């Protein structure tokens, strides 16, 4: 009788896991069984399902039957969603800062957004993380095609996970996702209005330090001035001779050219992602390990040994371990060369940018009444908070909750204001380009308050 009950339970357990997906209970480098539900898998999209998108799904640790579901899209384009899972909002983080030759250690994160929401971390576009294509032609993708792929993925995922179809649904991400997420939310909304099954219970979206229009780099100069990185005199001269346009500089405008060169020299030693942190290069396309000479120079540089870049490299070492890939149920032979956290080449060889302004989508979604949270790590020079504030002001909605501090543990976590179009804007004090990565606790409380419709 015991064996019969065991087999029945085993059958039900297997049946509850959709095809091409697996439950992960243990991960190399993590001590003991995972204290949360993790499912990984692939869903085919596009022509003949030639594109296979890989995902990590973590159930809410509170009430997964009722809690919101969040789709998380890391930016880039070409940065793995594992970056969001292990460095920003997920239930894991690395328990060491520098690689010591052995498999990196993972520990639980006390400020995971999965404490109150289920999160679907999606590797997109194709050739990101473990997502791959069956044919070489399918690796070619525009940003609009990538958005269509995400929408198709979601519809298929909800068919396979119909128990979550009534849960409130949000789309979130940061950086380059500021271009694609508004489009994806629009596609979901259009599908709902057209009656396309399954009907996703879309409630809104959130974006951190989002790229929204491609002239945003013009705001790096006023940002640098406001942060004391360039002098008043240079700032005034740049304004006078360049007229605020530093993207299309006329080469015959010698004064503007010289001023801009001076600006670039002054900030060349600054970490654009978080101006207070050391400049230690990048982990993009980093692998295999450095040569012995490079290792010696890194050992001499104690600051960079303990830097965020060194921590990024832990993911590369960890993910390229075959034991890890087997645990995650990655299909063998599908990774081109090696796994990298962010792929520089995706933007130049297989991925084509066709949309350079997502503001009209924000307008449409506001008209439809969807909630939105836009937040800025205020120490980011990649997408300065001034540029985000500028396009929000351009929308010209009435302010319903004026600029004020929001608090965490009795301290200022940042500043916020809300608008009549159901949009909330917030800064995260001390946050960098991917704000939750730098300020996990503050971001945790900010997002939890917003998604539960409490004032920040």
Write up this protein.
The protein is of the alpha/beta class. It folds into two domains: 19-215 and 354-451, Alpha/Beta hydrolase fold, catalytic domain (Rossmann fold); 217-343, no CATH class. Helices cover 34% and strands 19% of the residues. The chain has 15 helices and 16 strands. Strands 1, 2, 3, 4, 7, 8, 10, 11, 13, 14, 15 and 16 form a twelve-stranded mixed sheet that branches. Strands 5-6 form a two-stranded antiparallel sheet. Helix 3 (143-160) packs across helix 4 (177-193) and helix 6 packs antiparallel against helix 7. The protein is globular and about 65 Å long. Residues 1-15 and 291-296 have low confidence and may be disordered.
Which key features would you list for this structure?
single chain, 456 residues, alpha/beta, Rossmann fold, 2 domains, twelve-stranded mixed beta sheet, two-stranded antiparallel sheet, 16 strands, globular, disordered N terminus
Strand fraction = 15-25%
* Secondary structure tally, helices: 15
Do you know the CATH topology of the largest domain? Rossmann fold
CATH class of the largest domain: Alpha Beta
Shape: globular
Helix share, percent:
25-40%
The CATH architecture category of the largest domain equals 3-Layer(aba) Sandwich
Straight-line distance between termini: 55 Å
Average pLDDT, all residues: 90
Poorly predicted runs are 1-15, 291-296
Main pleated sheet:
12 strands, mixed
How many beta strands in the DSSP annotation? 16
Structural class: alpha/beta
CATH superfamily of the largest domain: Alpha/Beta hydrolase fold, catalytic domain
